[in-house]
UniProtKB/TrEMBL annotation:
InterPro entries linked to this entry: Kinase-like_dom_sf, Prot_kinase_dom, Protein_kinase_ATP_BS, RBK1/2/STUNTED, Ser-Thr/Tyr_kinase_cat_dom, Ser/Thr_kinase_AS
Residues the record lists as binding ATP: 92
Name used for this protein in its record: Receptor-like cytosolic serine/threonine-protein kinase RBK2 isoform X2
Family, per entry: Belongs to the protein kinase superfamily.
Alphabetical keyword list: ATP-binding, Kinase, Nucleotide-binding, Serine/threonine-protein kinase, Transferase
Record GO terms (molecular function): ATP binding; protein serine/threonine kinase activity
PROSITE patterns: PROTEIN_KINASE_ATP, PROTEIN_KINASE_DOM, PROTEIN_KINASE_ST
Xref: PANTHER family: GENOME ASSEMBLY, CHROMOSOME: A07, OS08G0249100 PROTEIN
Alphabetized Gene3D superfamilies for the sequence: Phosphorylase Kinase, domain 1, Transferase(Phosphotransferase) domain 1
UniProt source species: Raphanus sativus
Residues annotated as domain Protein kinase: 63-325
Amino acid sequence: MKYIRSNSLKRLFSFKRRSFDSDSENSTPHAKCVEGFQETEKFQRPKWKCFSFEEIYEATNGFSSENLVGRGGFAEVYKGVLGKTGQKIAVKRITRGGREDERREKEFLMEIGTIGHVSHPNVLSLLGCCIDNGLYLVFIFSSRGSVASLLHDLNQAPLEWETRYQIAIGTAKGLHYLHKGCQRRIIHRDIKSSNVLLTQDFQPQISDFGLAKWLPSQWSHHSIAPIEGTFGHLAPEYYTHGIVDEKTDVFAFGVFLLELISGKKPVDASHQSLHSWAKTIIKEGEIERLVDPRIEEDFDIKQLHRIAFAASLCIRSSSPCRPSMIENRY
Ligand SMILES: Nc1ncnc2c1ncn2[C@@H]1O[C@H](COP(=O)(O)OP(=O)(O)O)[C@@H](O)[C@H]1O
Ligand SMILES: [Mg+2]
């Protein structure tokens, strides 16, 4: 089946070649880090490979419905195990959608072009892709699922405060890396709890780069149409003028923090947005009212004040008044 256009394919494989070219002995992936940025965490070099359709078909037991672990706007995600190594993987199958195919292909390439070239403990690692019989991305499997599934599934024990705090800090580090630590500026554009996955020991990893954008360093921002992303997370300058820069992600990160604190969804059943509900409470100085009733009194008040304060700055309507991620990650 000819699904992906040849130009796109050429680009895809030139991306991959460049990734290995830059893998020479003397170059580090962070050689081009912005001046003044000091990252102390250890990174691995990005490496991904092309899988055959047979490999991923076998790994997921023929994409069996028991292995389906997630479904987003344009994709289905299956759990699998690689026969050769026994490694647990997640295979993201891009669904076909008639006239939407071109857009899906663009998002597929964008996801490879961004997530395939980054490497940070708080960003999901791409293992590879497959372009036979459709479009597939292969990732390391995140055994705890997404932050959204843990926060909003009432059948599971509520996430402990300490874990929520760890998730807030780790996600801030991952986002800071995307904005300032990797070779080119990456604006994620869809930061939200279903796009932050958790490892076995609850380390958060930012995923789903389908809407991500590279920004050249000389551009202060980028104008985008149509507006994409998730209602309840969209910064005002983005949904009114289509303007995208790091502060778009900072706004969404603020909403994510509020979701972690309160356990509430970004937009509730009566269409009230979480950030406007929280703004009123923060203004009244009653921060403890923000806390998820499911964790009762079991939280650290200092940590609560810290992340509620960070959230209140991130959700400011005026984008220049929001902090950058360097100020948020501690
Ligand atoms: N690596 C993974 N490990 C475990 N679950 C995953 C993984 N990647 C995605 N998922 C699950 O699949 C869902 C949809 O994946 P996502 O990449 O966000 O797709 P979409 O672009 O369609 O939103 C996620 O919210 C998560 O529950
Ligand atoms: Mg998603």
